[in-house]
Fold this protein.
Amino acid sequence: MQNLHDVVVAIVAFIILIGVMVVVHEFGHFAVAKLCGVRVESFSVGFGPRLFGVKYGDTDYKVCLLPLGGYVKMTGETPDQIATTSEEGAVVSPDDPGAFTSHPRWQRMLIGVAGPVANFILAFVLMAVYYALFNEVPLHETSSTTIEWVAADSVAAQAGFKAGDVVESFGGAQHPDWEKVDEQANFNFNQTVPVTVNRDGNTVQLSLALPPDIKGHDFDISDVGIIPQYVRGPIGVYDVPAGTPAAKAGLRGGDSIVAVDGHPFHTVESLLAYMQAGKGTALVLTVLRNGDTLPPMVVNPTRMDSGWKLGFEAVPPPMRDDPLPAGKAIGKAGQFCRDKSLLIVEVLQGLFTRRVAVSQLSGPVGIARMAGQAAGMRGWFPKIGLAAAISLNLGILNLMPFPILDGGLILLLLIESLLRHDISIAVKERIYQAAFVVLVVFFAFIIFNDVTKLPIFTHMKP
């Protein structure tokens, strides 16, 4: 955070984001508990002292002082409520028909899984609404179909396409724009289409073999290695995290990358394709800062995730709205949720196999930074996409079979079902106490790790 404004925006965005995610999660528990006949003593938005609310039936619906999520309190929900007394001083009997523990285990499992399911539904609805109302796509600032770059060893490269070629005909379309090229490609899956390009004033006839239709995948011409030039101007740099190759080379937020090794790239996609072909070879950047051209900047890409990268965040390209029909919006929302969920599961697997370091995880401070950045970015996707991704994270993490989490509750209920008797309250209390200590230590480490990533600390590192 560079100033007080950024801090305030991040805090407000974090409170709203996490508040909505947690309240929706707790509403899932609440709704199914009510359907199953479990007595819900309170449904709270926020924590701490009660500010205001209304009691309807057995439930106190209230708003509390600290707006960091919320909670649902069910009679007999935790072992200590059965072993001790309630707030009113009366013993909570295991035989109380309204108590959580008096209901069948399958109902308790449903109540436990309802919170994560509510998060999954929220993520899906958010993305379906986004695709149906917005679906921001790049605004094509150029009228010509100029190929900005051709990925090495791609289908297009093998067919003879080169950077700078201008597509004059594609299949049956004459003088097409890039949208028409994509349309023609979608009409000719698994076919070889004739393509005419203008190369340095000369007409060149080429043939492009298109891949077969892949169900659930929206074909884009970049799938065959052709990266279109649809914007003018250099690549804008939005942010450069400390410790990345770009930061070590001296790149800063607000800079503009005019050329890479003399190639005038306009999009990050072209730069990424160029770096993958170079396999980590040092790059010479031509950088514009405050209107002045800097001396050549040498940067060494490093392998991150699945490819070679410089580690900076680019300024998003200009966008336009292209709303999808309801059916396609639902399909895209499902694809988004599936892809993000698989990524989260892959990260969790990486933690246990030591392919992913715990220090790479983000906690409340990291989420607040991302929320603040999303709030300041143009368009709806950074905001809605982040909210949906965090909702999916919350749902999946709560399903992990760890005591205190919903998945831990379900695991204990499954064990009791196999044993055909309840685990003693004393044993449950010890399990929850140990799990609580582990979670506190884990989150303390995550928060400490978040804080050390803040600019005020990262600038102190060599």
Observations:
- The longest strand covers residues 40-56.
- Residues 83-90, 456-462 have pLDDT under 50 and may be disordered.
